[in-house]
Structures are given as structure tokens and as C-alpha cells.
Amino acid sequence: MLYCDTVSCANKLSSGYGLRATTSELHGNACAAICNNGSNGSVTGTHNKQVIRAVLPDYRKTETSETTKNKRLHGKLNKVVLAYSGGLDTSVIVPWLRENYGCEVICFTADVGQSIKDLDGLEEKAKASGASQLVIKDLKEELVREYIFPCLRAGAIYERKYLLGTSMTRPLIAKALVNFAKEVRADAVAHGCTAKGSDQVIFELTFYALDPTLKVVAPWREWDIKGREDAIDYAEKHNVPVPVTKKSIYSRDWNLWHLSHEGDILEDLVNEPKKDMYMWTVDPQDAPYDPVYVEIGFVKGLPVSVNGKELSPASLVSELNWIGARHGVGRVDLVENRIVGMKGRGVYETPGGTILFTALRELEALTLDRETMQVKDTLALKYAEVVFAGRWFDPLRESMDAFMEKITETTTGSVTLKLYKGSIAVTSRKSPFSLYRQDISSFESVESGNIYSHADASGFIRVYGLPIWIRAMQQRSH
């Protein structure tokens, strides 16, 4: 309908928005003025309006814009910042937010070292889904320096295997999301974490810690979509391009530290992961027949160099990723306890991280005494648990981190490892602060001067074993 040089459409987009545009604006695929406040005002100028170019989905008839407003199921928001990856979940969340909250959706993507392919075309995809804009922020150096390296120094490994690749990254993304939401004056943030996973907890505890007044929208806890196949159907219905099909619906998380795989055949624990599932590391059987040696330098418990070359934190991890992946290092198949109480299975590829953890443990064997190492290992378990549970900005983690920083002041030196077909073997360790003394430990030296005499062992054994001797004598008397 043409009225006063304004085209008004009595229909509405499937997202629930009215469509109005001047005739001069109708060019290209479509150019629409979206009234985010639900008003029925016409578009007569360039002020106070938002014109977006998008591929329009099918129309559905409605009586009035007021009816559309009343059909929104979850209230009204003005502007929402979505943690956006371009994957299945976040792709369908964009039109869902617009349809159910009548809001402008701004997508925020953290560049944390995911595949370049994951970032290509991301802006076009976000806008085609209905977002007003996409902002990408490079967080790779901050991720490694402020999150990964502290966990490495602490020796934090969750449930014996998991090197916390996702758990360390989510607090950084959530922090950046909060800061960006403040910049654009958004009244809410949204994420695509499922209601069965641990990620939702990590995101929202970070939101609580940094801005408890910020509204959080978690579509997986609100919408009618029951699983990933439903999400694919929703995407197809709304003409949203997604990178998965119903034949292959692995849920993946890729960052500079690791690549994780969940879902699909992995949910049945009897299934061995398929060879073509792995996207980063070479199958150990196909790895080179010649081993490679890599030397890693540390200063105060933090890695600083690879093969004698000093590198930035992100560059160092990237270099070790390349070396480790080529030799099939870093694959883990893990059944873990999620925060929400259930168990889940994940397969992880962490080539550089596996190399670093191995090297640092070997160096600490030189620089830490027995009691210190035992306390550190005990706290490392708690540190990993706290990080996995999303409590990065908790005073407990910060206090443990201060302990780890202090206790590793002398953990300086280098370790050389041999990588061969998925295995790692240590070949050399050295440190200026090493507590190992060859002149004392050697079996070849009969006497070690005034430091240790073989005769000292008799008195030590008698004193150390006194409780055992007393108990045995007491039992014998009865």
C-alpha cells in the first residue's frame, strides 16, 4: 500500500516486525526500516530509523502491529548483545530474539584463535540472520597471558585429563561481552549455551561478578526448540545459513588452546571417535616416522621461548600447536562430570597445551621440594574445579593464583621433549635453581662430603619408622 510516498505492508516478517519503507529505499534484495520500539511511525527521513539490507523470509499475515506486539512471548527489550560464533545455536538465536523480544540484536564475536574459516563471512551471516551489526574483537593475547598461562602455572587439570580449554575462554568472552554491552548501552546480553552444559554457568557467573544489574537471556532455557535437529529446522524455516546438517551435528568449540567435539555418535560411549571427526591433529598412525625435539624455556613458571626463540604468549602457543598437531599429540577422550550434575563425553585436541603441561611438570620436578609440590598439586585440583565451575572472578581463585605465583618464583629453566606419533618423552631438563645435586644423588659417590653420609640413613630410618615400630610392638604384646 502506497501512502504519502511511504510503502506500508500489512503483513509482518516472521520475526514479528512491521515493514515500512519509502519508495526511494526499495532497491537491492530488500531495504527495510525496522521500528524497534514497536511503533507504527512512517519512514519519512534519515533520522531516528535503522535501515538494514537483508534477505526477507516468508511473510505471515497479522491484523495489526499491536497484535504483533502482544504476541511476543518474553517481554520487550531494546537492545541485546549476543555472544555470537556463527554456529548453529547462535545463528538461530538472532531471529528468535527479534521475534520474541522485539529488540535490536548486536552480535559480538571474540577472536580467541578459532579457525579463520569460522570468521570468514561472519558479518554477512549475522546480518542475514537479522543482526544490526557484528563486532569482532581480537582477544588471543589476553586469553593466553591472563587466563591460559595462570592455569598452566597452577597445573590445573580437571578430572585428570581436561586442560580446561573452554572453561578458561568463557570468562574472557563474558567479560568482553559485558564491557561491550556497556559501550553500546544494551539492556541485556544473550548466549547460546545449552541448559545441559557447564558453559551457561560460566557465562552467567561472570555476568554476576562484573555487572549484576545486566539482564541475561538464555534462549535454550526459554524456547520450544528441544535439540539440535529442531534448531536446524528453525534455521531452514527462517533462511538462516548454518554450518551443520542433520547427518553431522557435532558440537565444537575451537580456540587457540583446544578443539572440542561433543554430540552425535560420541553420546553412545561404545562408539570410537571416527577418524574424520578430528580436524586439527594428525592421526598418530599417520604422523611422521622421524621424531621431533622441542625445547621450551620457562621463567617463573611461565613459558617464554620455543627452541631458543622468545615469542609472545599467543605466538608461543600457536607454534607448539603446529608442532604438536603434526605429530598427533594432544588427543583426549573424556567422560566428565558437568557442573549441572550429569556426566558428558567430550573428545579434545590440545596439542600445544599438552606439550606445555608436560614440560612444566618436568621442570617443577627440579625446582620444587616434596612438601611444596604436594601442596601445589592439592591446590591445583581445587583451582581446576573452581575454573571449571565458572568462578574465575572469585576471590578463592585469585588467592590461589597468588600462591601459585609465589611458589613458582624459582621455576625457571628449560625442558626438551621428544614427540613421536602421539607420544611425548622428556629428554633434557635444566634450571639454575635446580634442587637436584648429582654429587649427592649419584650411586657412584661413596661419600658426599659433609652433606650426606651413608651412615646417616640408619638414624633416619629409626626415627622415621618409630610410629610403625611402636604399633607393631604394641600389637605383639596382645
From TrEMBL:
Domain of life: Eukaryota
Sequence ranges assigned to domain Arginosuccinate synthase-like N-terminal in this UniProt record: 79-241
Pfam family, one: Arginosuc_syn_C
CDD domains for the chain: ASS
Any one GO cellular component localisation term in the record: cytoplasm
Entry-linked InterPro entries: Arginosuc_syn_C (IPR048268), Arginosuc_syn_N (IPR048267), Arginosuc_synth (IPR001518), Arginosuc_synth_CS (IPR018223), Arginosuc_synth_type_1_subfam (IPR023434), AS_cat/multimer_dom_body (IPR024074), Rossmann-like_a/b/a_fold (IPR014729)
Domain Arginosuccinate synthase C-terminal residues, every copy: 250-468
Gene Ontology biological-process entries: argininosuccinate metabolic process; L-arginine biosynthetic process; urea cycle
EC numbers on record: 6.3.4.5
Annotated metabolic or biological route of this protein: Amino-acid biosynthesis; L-arginine biosynthesis; L-arginine from L-ornithine and carbamoyl phosphate: step 2/3
Keyword Signal appears in the UniProt entry: no
Subunit structure as annotated in this protein's UniProt entry: Homotetramer.
Protein's recorded name: argininosuccinate synthase
Organism (species): Rhamnella rubrinervis
Phylogenetic lineage: Eukaryota, Viridiplantae, Streptophyta, Embryophyta, Tracheophyta
